[in-house]
């Protein structure tokens, strides 16, 4: 999308709390970050604004009182079964994967404290968000028969690359963040997406840009990842005539010099710039846009929606509009999350918590293998912290909401 000492039954391997949306942080010399201080010197943070339905209409936020509790009734018994998490735990976009892992950690902590006779561990597999590296670790996941459920992979590209391996093994894999729409078109029978896909996010984003923001001309810029390409396609198509082809641009993952794209965009004087990609590139891109005199509203999706974007972009991130087909943590859960992890929750934290809770409920019900986990998840119909979880036969949620955020 990550490193910190875990407690209880969580296998140690993640260190250094990273900055997340809604909390302040500061970068360390080794590239990781720790909580504390005011984060970026600008004092900016990412704040939730409105929740929108697939048609772009505002949805009232409600306090959920019947969300599934990972603690259960405290009477569960189990042995010899574990879960796994796969995603970027290090690398330029590590904060996104850490959010998921720390959400899972909270669910496990609650479960294991309440159920002394059912201690469930989660094994971490670091992919750095790289499809090639993900294919190298995937065999290690599927050959461990004690692993009966996988939280991940986190990114769309690595999910596409490893999906056939997980599907062939019969291991249920539940992603909290991979949003490329084509992932559920591969015929995989054990893949479940815990949030809306980019078709829902992209179409709502486009309507928000031209409607609420009143943008008549939008420059769409995409990176070369499966996520960036897929999301940009939907945004561009939904924008229609508002998407100006004269300033559409493509960049590469890992790119740091965006002078050509900045010059192209500046020459078209757009009302808004939409960036499809991750925060590692979005931060220097928006910085160079502002330095180049481009004042258009900067907008981007869930791949950019992390406090690391703000910390790295500084004051250039001011007033950026960021979106996510995920939900922010309510105050009570946020307090528990921060007490355990030493940082506030970010995007995908709630989804990581909810999906882990679902798999824990399966184990508590007596599920002991992958086949049992698959049947449990397929038939699941329950309320989570931020949304209802029930999947169709392709592994897509029955409902999808989009949260709009703003940097201020």
- Poorly predicted tracts of residues: 1-41
Strand order of the largest sheet: 4-3-17-14-13-12-10-11
Our estimate of the beta-strand percent is 15-25%
Using only C-alpha atoms, the radius of gyration works out to: 20 Å
Q: How many H/I helical runs?
A: 11
Tell me the number of strands: 17
H-E string: EEEEEHEHEHEEHEHEHEHEHEHHHEEE
- Cα shape: globular
- Structural class determined from secondary elements: alpha/beta
Helix content range: 25-40%
Let me know the largest β-sheet: 8 strands, mixed
* C-alpha termini separation: 23 Å
What value does the average pLDDT take? 89
Key features?
single chain, 408 residues, alpha/beta, 8-stranded mixed beta sheet, 5-stranded parallel beta sheet, 17% strand, globular, disordered N terminus
Account of the 3D structure:
- With 408 residues, the chain is of the alpha/beta class.
- It has 11 helices and 17 strands.
- It has helices at 94-114, 131-142, 156-169, 198-210, 226-239, 259-266, 279-291, 307-313, 331-341, 349-364, 370-378, and strands at residues 25-27, 33-35, 46-52, 58-59, 82-87, 121-126, 147-151, 173-175, 191-193, 218-222, 249-250, 272-276, 297-300, 321-324, 382-383, 388-389, 402-407.
- It has an 8-stranded mixed β-sheet, sandwiched between helices.
- The longest helix is centred in the first third of the chain and has 21 residues, at 94-114.
- The two termini are 23 Å apart.
- The model is unreliable at 1-41 (pLDDT under 50).
């Amino acid at each position: 999308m990550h490193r910190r000492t875990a407690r209880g039954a969580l296998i140690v391997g993640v260190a250094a709390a990273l900055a997340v949306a809604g909390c302040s942080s500061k970068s360390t010399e080794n590239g990781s970050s720790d909580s504390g201080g005011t984060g970026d010197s600008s004092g900016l943070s990412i704040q939730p604004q409105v929740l929108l339905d697939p048609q772009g209409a505002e949805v009232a936020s409600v306090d959920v009182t019947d969300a599934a509790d990972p603690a259960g009734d405290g009477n569960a018994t189990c042995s010899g079964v574990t879960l796994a998490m796969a995603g970027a735990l290090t690398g330029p976009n590590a904060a996104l994967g850490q959010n998921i892992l720390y959400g899972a950690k909270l669910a496990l902590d609650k479960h294991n404290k309440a159920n002394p006779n059912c201690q469930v561990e989660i094994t971490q597999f670091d992919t750095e968000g790289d499809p090639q590296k993900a294919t190298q670790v995937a065999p290690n996941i599927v050959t461990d028969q004690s692993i009966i459920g996988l939280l991940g992979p986190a990114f769309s590209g690595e999910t596409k690359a490893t999906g056939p391996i997980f599907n062939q093994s019969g291991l249920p894999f539940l992603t909290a963040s991979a949003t490329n729409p084509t992932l559920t078109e591969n015929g995989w029978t054990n893949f479940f997406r815990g949030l809306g896909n980019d078709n829902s996010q992209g179409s709502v984003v486009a309507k928000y840009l031209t409607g609420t923001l009143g943008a008549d001309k939008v420059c769409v810029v995409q990176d070369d990842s499966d996520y960036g390409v897929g999301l940009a396609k939907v945004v561009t198509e939904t924008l229609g005539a508002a998407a100006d082809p004269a300033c559409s641009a493509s960049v590469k993952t890992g790119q740091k010099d965006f002078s050509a794209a900045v010059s192209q965009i500046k020459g078209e004087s757009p009302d808004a710039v939409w960036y499809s990609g991750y925060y590692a590139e979005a931060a220097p891109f928006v910085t160079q846009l502002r330095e180049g005199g481009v004042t258009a509203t900067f907008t981007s999706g869930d791949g950019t929606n992390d406090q690391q974007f703000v910390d790295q972009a500084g004051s250039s991130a001011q007033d950026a509009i960021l979106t996510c087909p995920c939900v922010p943590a309510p105050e009570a859960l946020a307090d528990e999350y921060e007490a355990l992890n030493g940082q506030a929750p970010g995007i995908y934290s709630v989804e990581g918590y909810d999906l882990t809770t679902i798999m824990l409920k399966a184990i508590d019900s007596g599920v002991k293998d992958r086949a049992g986990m698959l049947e449990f998840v397929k038939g699941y119909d329950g309320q989570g912290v931020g949304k209802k979880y029930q999947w169709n036969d392709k592994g897509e949620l029955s409902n999808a909401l989009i949260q709009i955020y703003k940097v201020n």
